[in-house]
Specification:
With 333 residues, the protein is of the alpha/beta class. The protein folds into two domains: 171 residues, Response regulator (Rossmann fold), CATH 3.40.50.2300; 127 residues, Response regulator (Rossmann fold, 3-Layer(aba) Sandwich), CATH 3.40.50.2300. Helices cover 47% and strands 15% of the residues. It is built from 13 helices and twelve strands. It has a five-stranded parallel sheet, sandwiched between helices. A three-stranded parallel sheet has the order 4-1-5, with helices on both faces. Pfam families: Peripla_BP_6 (PF13458).
Length: 333
């Protein structure tokens, strides 16, 4: 279904009736114009920047190999990007995707960063019937069913799946008292909810703190003091890039040092890695969904990223972005 939809997006309009007089043929396409918004600033900038870099590595890799083959033209076409910074704001992203479609007249779209921004653009892509292969969006099955989207394809594991992975780890190492904190957004709320449910269902530990905080918070000491008083064995924080740094800094300041500290996706960014020394990072567990050894193309893109940017790609956003790009490419071809 994706291949059919994408092929339709790249086709030139076909005449259904002969015209009375000859008209000049439209020039053949010289490139495939792909548009997206991405979080280069705001709360998601740490991961959004890396997702953008992953897109760039893929584009350069594709163009180095001649482009994407389009059967209609019988040749490969290079990829051209049109993109904007959505500042990690869902409403801005929604507006930008409409601009990409109506004003920039892109052929295809790539996904933005983050679950809450993926969800924000669903009405736009449904309206204009342009498919998007999602990547950094963990959406509950019930929400996917509620959306009834025909044009956004979610590829990230559901929160139910990732939450169970956390819980099995906690149960396996014998944790008995757990604090769960979460940023108040779709993805992080869902993960926290399923963590709590699975822990309670499996009856291996007590949830001693369960509380959310606004995304964009600048001080979480009050909440963290509750955690310190509860004295948990493990602390789970479902975070995004900026609040992952905030939580870790303030836990260190308040001398909160649980046996296990699980930081979700927010602790994977280069910004987080560069912020803290190895002693602080020792023992922190983060969620990831890919490895360069999983597929030959992933390994090739990994090496190109390392060569271009000079550091090990630390974020799950990179692998997810490449998966979505390669899926788009294969659907066109």
């Amino acid at each position: 279904m994706v291949a059919v939809l994408l092929f339709g997006c790249l086709q030139q309009p076909q005449q259904t009736q002969p015209t009375p007089t000859p008209t000049a043929a439209k020039p053949a396409k010289e490139s495939i114009k792909i548009g997206f918004s991405i979080s280069l600033s705001g709360s998601g900038a740490g991961a959004g920047t890396e997702q953008y870099r992953a897109y760039e590595v893929w584009r350069e890799w594709v163009n180095r190999n001649g482009g994407i083959y389009v059967e209609e033209y019988g040749k490969k076409l290079p990829v051209e990007f049109v993109y904007y910074d959505d500042a990690s704001e869902p409403a801005r992203a929604k507006s930008l995707y409409e601009k990409l479609i109506l004003e920039d007249k892109v052929d295809l779209l790539l996904a933005p960063w983050g679950t809450f921004i993926h969800l924000a653009i669903v009405p736009v892509i449904e309206k204009y019937k342009i498919p998007v292969v999602g990547n950094t969006a963990g959406v509950e099955l019930s929400k996917i069913n509620e959306l009834q989207t025909k044009y956004e394809f979610f590829t990230y594991p559901t929160p139910e799946t990732t939450a169970m992975a956390y819980v099995l780890l906690l149960e396996n190492i014998g944790v008995k008292r757990i604090a769960i904190l979460y940023a108040q957004t779709d993805f992080t709320v869902a993960n926290a909810k399923w963590n709590k449910k699975f822990i309670e269902d499996r009856k291996f530990a007590d949830v001693v703190v369960y509380e959310g905080y606004p995304l964009g918070s600048t001080d979480l000491k009050g909440l963290l003091l509750k955690v310190k008083e509860a004295n948990p064995d493990a602390v789970i924080v479902h975070s995004y890039p900026a609040d992952a740094i905030l939580v870790t800094s303030q836990m260190k300041e308040l001398d909160i040092n649980p046996n296990l500290f699980v930081l979700g996706v927010g602790g994977q960014t280069l910004a987080f890695d560069q912020k803290f020394d190895n002693k602080t990072k020792e023992g922190i567990v983060v969620l990831n969904t890919w490895h360069p050894d999983l597929h030959p193309e992933a390994a090739e893109l990994y090496n190109l990223y390392l060569k271009k940017y000079g550091h090990n790609p630390p974020s799950h956003a990179i692998g997810l972005a490449w998966i979505s790009c390669i899926t788009l490419q294969k659907a066109i071809e």
